[in-house]
Amino acid sequence: MFATQSQLMQGLPKKMSEFRRQHPIAAVARALALIKGNLVTIIVLLVVGSRGGEASVIWWIGGGFLTLLVLGVVSWWRFQYKIEDGEMHIKRGLFVRQNMYLTRDRVQVIDITAGVLQRMFGLVKVEIKTAASSSREATIDAISRADAEIITEKLKKKNGTAGDLQDTEEPAAEKQARTFHLPGKNLLVAASTSGSFGIALSVIGTIFSQAEPLISENEIYEWFMSVIPAETDLFLIITVVGLLILFAWLMSFFGTLFSYGDFSLTVFSDELLITRGIFEKKRITIPFNRIQAIWIMEGVLRQPFGYCSVHLESAGYGDSKGNGSILLFPLIKKHKLDPFLEKIVPEYIKSAPAQKPPLRAMRRYIFKSLLISVPVIAGLWWLFDASLWIWILLIPAAFWGWLRYRDASIGWDYDNIMISFRNLAKTTAVIKKTRAQDLDIEQSWIQKFRNLISVNLHVASGDQGRSFSVKELEVSVSDYLERWIRKGDNSHSIDMGQQTKQLVPHWREG
Amino acid sequence: MKKTPSKKLTPRAIRAWQWAAAGGNLFILSLPILYAIFLGWQGIHLWVLIALAVIALLYYIAGIFLIPYVRWRHWRYEIDEHEIDLLRGVLIRRRTLIPLSRVQHVDTTQGPILRWYKLASVTISTAATTHEISALDEMIADHVRDTISTYARLAEEDV
Questions:
Q1: Residues in CB range of A325: below 8 A, 6 or more apart
Q2: Smallest Cβ distance to B157: which of A434, A441, A448?
Q3: Residue A6's pLDDT band (boundaries 50, 70, 90)?
Q4: Are A244 and A209 in contact (CB under 8 A)?
Q5: Interface residue B92 vs chain A (CB under 8 A)
Q6: Helices H, strands E: what count in chain A?
Q7: Cβ contact (<8 Å) for B155 and A485?
Q8: Which of A97, A126, A201, A424 is deepest in the core (most CB within 10 A)?
Q9: Between chains, do B128 and A434 touch, taking CB under 8 Å as contact?
């Protein structure tokens, strides 16, 4: 019913070989995308506008929406596309006219997704991805599913690698595809231990500090003050901070729940397909030959319970910001990792003897973490006028440094390198030699006294790169690594003095 | 770190860096002036101002008469058929090995100062990172660029 309606709104069905526009709802989608992209600016404008009384707030909001809607309509009007001889031509842009040509040979993946808005009108969004980085611009925001299928059909390569249509109708050749779902319990655990909690906290903290003068004149504030048992100033601060933390946790909990709910990972013969999201469905296709690295992350809240998340770095296909880090599986027990990877990326199950930072590196790890935490503690001390007892926080800081020392290691076999390190969460990465873009070895003048070095390995990720690094390693490790990365050098069998029995990655234990 | 790369940059690079520092570090000299404008020069501000001015001046002078020399002395590079080997940095020594099969493209670039001294810098891009061999003689830079692109073409391996 919606489909026919949308066809009516687009006028008579035209041929694909003539220029046509999207469904008008694309204008709204565009306006919403603009709001999402400029949220900070909008909030600032609203705060500024709210100074002038209630009437002006309405003007500000109304005017803002009107502007965005006009922008959306204009961009909808200027966006035209057609397909001719297996080539898609997109015209877009208001001041600078952009002409994009996507030939069938270059199209690698066509993703069809439906956001909340699209679903309300029975429409879909089509993303056409080529290997080039500019490909993320080739997105048609709203067209009917039938049209999307015609586009997929026309741009499909003859061997049929590009474009999978619907979740339910997979081609017969890919019948052996396996699908993994995230169990509900794991989703809840993932949501409640999500790392975005810290980010949410800082966002809320900022908003709170900005909005505080507005709130304090409010009746709600008066009521709130009378309800909480605020006997001392310190108690008040603790209550407020506690509430902020709770609120941040709830935000990250529901954020994760909504964006990773209904998660599924499907393995085809030549690509992976991830679908996720409760309200807004996201689909991510990753061809196997684009995978640059696999890494697992054991978050601070997850590690004690033996949980970790599985990630990958992909070249060319990332999110809309050009970032190539993709969450392959949100939460899994560490001891189930091997059987899981076996079914998805068996060539990444590797391990090698761990080269760990020597004992004399420990104090540098601890010293560095103290160096970072001293200004933070001093800031808190000064800000809250706290007692000297706050300096007791230096003990967990030193412990954190020791953890970073303990978890740092590097190991390699003939054509893989495994790196393990900790910032807050512990990360363990497996990278193929052919995917390592370069090898960086650094030695500061202090490290020179101690005969230590830091190793930095870059892999491609989205449009840019991502680095994996281990600090304070024995100098001799660099010699081995240099030989390792040199082409044609087979001396991978290492016999280093203080080789440990430990393996990287050591997710097999336990 | 054994077998360090052998080639040095063209000595004229020092002159080019000196001019670049003389121009680029001017804003450092403006810091004490900005401080005086916004915070005044009464009482304690005077001493802060003096300290700031001395530091800025020392930095500016070092930027011209010391840093370019030290920097040049610590720069080494080497290119063979397997990889590009860069070694640089004074306080933090940084060694970078780029296998030639990962090189996506090489460019030579030349700003006005480099052009005056007939120098050029070679930029090497991989899928993840960009590295620069700064300030080589024009001819050498062209040669280096051609060498890298020839070797890179020979070293066939998927990205």
A1: A311, A312, A313, A318, A461, A462, A466
A2: A434
A3: very low
A4: no
A5: yes
A6: 15, 21
A7: no
A8: A126
A9: no
pLDDT value of position A310: 93
Q: Which pair of tokens denotes residue A144? A: 């009917």
Residue A81 near residue A73, CB atoms below 8 Å = no
Would the pLDDT of A123 be above 90? no
**CB atoms A465 and B128 under 8 Å:** yes
CB contact under 8 Å between A486 and B126, yes or no, is no
State the pTM of this model: 0.76
Q: Report the SS3 class of residue A133.
A: helix
Using CB atoms, pick whichever of B82, B127, B131 lies closest to residue A488: B82
Rounded CA-CA distance B145/A178 in Å is: 47
Q: For an interface test with B, which of A133, A288, A314, A437 has the most B Cβ atoms less than 10 Å from its Cβ?
A: A437
Which residue, chain included where needed, has tokens 């800000």? Answer: A383
Whether residue B97 and residue A438 make contact (CB cut-off 8 A), yes or no, is: yes
Minimum mean pLDDT range among A134-143, A239-248, A492-501, B120-129: A492-501
Low-confidence ranges of chain B (pLDDT < 70): 1-2, 156-159
pLDDT at A161: 43
**pLDDT confidence tier of residue A98, bands split at 50, 70 and 90:** confident
Please name the helix (run of DSSP H) or strand (run of DSSP E) that holds residue B72, with its range, or none. helix B67-73
- In chain B, positions 58-87, which contact chain A (CB-CB < 8 Å)? 82-83
Task: Kindly tell me the number of DSSP H helices and DSSP E strands found in chain B.
Answer: 6, 6
Least confident piece of the model among A114-118, A120-124, A161-165, A417-421: A161-165
Position A170 pLDDT exceeds 50: no
User: Which tokens sit at A486?
Assistant: 């040199």
Interface test with A, best of B78, B81, B95, B132 (most A CBs within 10 A): B95
DSSP-assigned letter for residue A414: S
Task: For residues B156 and B159, give the distance between their C-alpha atoms in angstroms, rounded to a whole number.
Answer: 9
Residue whose tokens read 């840093």: B67
Question: Percent helix, strand and coil across chain A, each rounded to 5?
Answer: 45, 25, 25
What are the backbone angles phi and psi of residue B128, rounded to the nearest 5°? -115, -35
Is residue A370 within 8 A of residue A394, CB to CB? The reply is: yes
Binary contact (A466, B128; C-beta < 8 A): yes
Which residue type occupies A96? Answer: V
Closest CA to A244 of A218, A206, A210: A206
Kindly determine whether residue A444 and residue B159, on different chains, have CB atoms separated by under 8 Å.
no
Q: Please choose, from the candidates A426, A430, A394, the residue with its C-alpha nearest in 3D space to the C-alpha of residue A411.
A: A430
User: What DSSP designation does B82 have?
Assistant: S
